[in-house]
């Protein structure tokens, strides 16, 4: 045979995609050409594949070999296509048949000795295979196979060498078993809310944030427990679903290959304010796209301590993710979209020096400091509380108890909002809050009164209504009433929060 075809997978950004590998044998000067926008690591695959094939005891075809990768318009990166190229070459040579190759995707880098090695981004690729319409059987190196075994809807076949892959395809040996993984994804460990002492209002605000998916700003002097509280938010959120677990694993895997450590606790990212722009939002790193902290916080919590100290450009870059849950990364030739749907927790000192008692900051300094958090960013932050030093030592409630209330409130919100295409109160559009989803008439009147007294903008009033809905969901009542409005106002202790 002179034309053969196999399937491999690549990552474009964080999205896995199946690639068709065609091999054509023709008469002519011996050599191998790879076409279809391959990067250098794929071009180098020529030499690796040849050595691996020969060292596995197969004949290398004589004549000219042309390898075509399609879709040709996507830039393909990495060495993960080696195995797919090698089996297609072997098929062109008759070592395996077309029907033996059909229905499989091959993922793995080849060693010169023919061993199949692990590849970065395998979880994302496996998810891409499942989402695609093509084959569902995946040959992969043993470490990779263990990593992707959780992806539902795939038959994963671990192989140590190219030879073993061929033997399995030919039916010469039995299909090897996937290495053991624990079936149950553990909830994992998270810091306990009950360790927070004497901050009942802050604990309540955190519960409301978790229940409604509200972004939150905490302001208060250093050492008052802002970081401690923020770290406890993931433990109050609903555990990740199976699909979310895999998406989070795919991102970790693309960053440092640690995608196999899975847990259901939503991720928590707390970058320092000196973190570079690229570290925060992601960017190119060599040939690959490196996810930033906002992508690592996908399905979890992004905590910015001393938020006004972050570079203005970095804070501005949070707006797109807050809007649609993704971040666009422009690279030389392409723009990639990475997932970045996170819950934002901002912390700020009341003034630039942060010293409560000895503060000598001028009013101008304080205004400039708080002004660094721009209006468009703060517009998306529904909850703003100010923290003071704890007066008592009453412990917070256990995280498990609060999480159960959060889950019940979220269920209520989801069933109400499903018709409107939303799932949490934080994302309910203003129009609905003033129409179909308005609080009770007397609650609306009370809200208008508060707004008139304090001079709130329309948007600020809408944020109150969103929070009031979450309070109603937590209380199990039909529609926000006076109590919910009062508490929403209390949770928005505007006078002493960062002034905006
Ligand atoms: Zn000061």
Give the helix/strand layout.
Layout: E1 3-12, E2 15-26, E3 31-35, H1 40-43, H2 45-55, E4 64-70, H3 82-92, H4 98-101, E5 104-107, E6 109-110, E7 116-117, H5 122-131, E8 137-140, H6 142-148, E9 155-158, H7 162-170, H8 200-212, E10 216-219, H9 226-231, H10 242-256, E11 268-269, H11 277-281, E12 282-285, E13 288-291, H12 293-296, E14 301-304, H13 312-316, H14 319-324, E15 326-330, E16 335-339, E17 343-348, H15 363-371, H16 375-378, E18 383-386, H17 399-417, H18 430-434, H19 441-454, H20 458-475, H21 482-491
Helix pairs in contact: 2-3, 5-10, 8-17, 8-20, 17-20, 19-21, 20-21
What attributes does this structure have?
4-stranded mixed beta sheet, 38% helix, single chain, binds zinc ion, 18 strands, elongated, alpha/beta, 5-stranded parallel beta sheet, 500 residues, disordered C terminus
Structural notes for this entry:
The chain is an alpha/beta fold and 500 residues long. Helices cover 38% and strands 18% of the residues. It contains 21 helices and 18 strands. The chain has a five-stranded parallel sheet. A four-stranded mixed sheet has the order 1-2-4-3. Strands 5-8-9 form a three-stranded parallel sheet. A hairpin with a 2-residue loop joins β1 and β2. The protein starts with a strand and ends in a 9-residue tail after the last helix. The structure holds zinc ion (ZN). Zinc ion (ZN) binds at residues 351-353, 355, 359, 361.
